[in-house]
Design a protein that fits this description.
translocase, 3-methyladenine DNA Glycosylase II, Chain A, domain 3, metal-binding, Alpha-Beta Plaits, 3 domains, EC 7.-.-.-, membrane, alpha+beta
Length: 191
């Protein structure tokens, strides 16, 4: 019994020593991001729609920080372009029509009585805003839907509509100018 306790204690000490050598005991693994990328990403609308030619807002933010054009985001539209121009101290450019046109905020709505439960919309949703199970009706969590439109094309029975969201007290958001954004680290210290 005593030898088992000694063996366990030795293993624990070895694990702590090994963890200390790797730096785990002193500090958890942490990746420091580029503050400019963080600020750009905060301005982008987070629709994850891919209309800009990137798989999501974060990769587009990284590309903008590397000098890419600021006018490829139709969901963000003119407001986002102006905020990015202010942040980067460049002239605003008109929205690049190659990537789409600016539209009002929309959400997906599934006509549930027509849904066959194929799950193709669930697989296409980049923000997990669609609930359902195979061979059962699906529904959209409207508050989570970014209006990216990526669920519409995969639907084999065409039972998904994109509906314009009317601005009201529940859906209105304030987009401060980029000059008001302050980069902070995880402890809230101004960077």
């Amino acid at each position: 019994m005593t030898s088992v306790l000694i063996a366990v204690a030795v293993l624990l000490l070895l694990a702590l020593a090994f963890g200390g050598l790797l730096g785990f005991a002193a500090e958890r693994f942490r990746v420091e991001g580029n503050p400019l990328v963080e600020q750009i990403d905060a301005i982008l609308p987070q629709t994850q729609c891919g209309q800009c030619g990137f798989p999501g807002c974060r990769p587009y933010a990284e590309s903008i920080a590397d000098g890419d054009a600021i006018n490829k985001c139709p969901p963000g539209g003119e407001t986002t372009i102006k905020a990015l121009a202010d942040l980067l101290d460049v002239e605003p450019q008109p929205l690049d029509a190659e990537h789409g046109v600016e539209q009002a905020k929309r959400v997906a709505v599934i006509r549930e009585d027509e849904c066959i439960g194929c799950t193709k919309c669930i697989q296409a949703c980049p923000v997990d805003a669609i609930l359902g199970a195979a061979k059962h009706m699906h529904t959209v969590i409207a508050s989570e839907c970014t209006g990216c439109d990526l669920c519409v094309d995969p639907c084999p029975v065409d039972c998904i509509d994109m509906v314009t969201v009317e601005a009201d007290i529940r859906t209105w958001t304030w987009n401060p100018p980029a000059s008001n954004l302050i980069a902070t680290d995880r402890q809230g210290v101004v960077a």
